Amino acid sequence: MSSSYGGMSAFDRLRARLDGRPHVCEECGYVNEGGGWEAVTSGAAVEYRWACPSCGTERVRRYRL
């Protein structure tokens, strides 16, 4: 599979991958067409967070380093 994300860090590529996919809120059904994921790192893990603009429910994806 080829990638159009060349020249970006691994973290940037993962965020671009998450942002590029539609996301449906499990609580209210709001459909986000992509974007809005924020990255936070503790040094031992990276968390990508998305908050639903409709109901405020937060979705977290955590990756250990």
List keywords for this structure.
65 residues, alpha+beta, three-stranded antiparallel beta sheet, two-stranded antiparallel ribbon, 1 helix, globular
Any overview of this molecule?
The protein has 65 residues and is α+β, with helices and mostly antiparallel strands. Helix content is 15%, strand content 34%. It is built from 1 helix and 5 strands. Strands 3-4-5 form a 3-stranded antiparallel sheet, with no helix packed on it. A hairpin with a 3-residue loop joins strand 3 (38-41) and strand 4 (45-51). It starts with 9 loop residues before the first helix and ends with a strand. The relative contact order is 0.22.
Average pLDDT metric: 83
Q: What oligomeric state do these chains adopt?
A: single chain
Question: Helix count?
Answer: 1
Biggest sheet, spatial arrangement of strands? 3-4-5
The ordered H/E elements are: HEEEEE
Secondary structural class: alpha+beta
Integer-rounded radius of gyration: 13 Å
Low-confidence stretches: none
Distance between the termini: 24 Å
Q: Strand percentage, roughly?
A: 25-35%
Biggest sheet, open or closed, and with what strands and sense?
3 strands, antiparallel
Question: What is the number of strand segments?
Answer: 5
Shape: globular
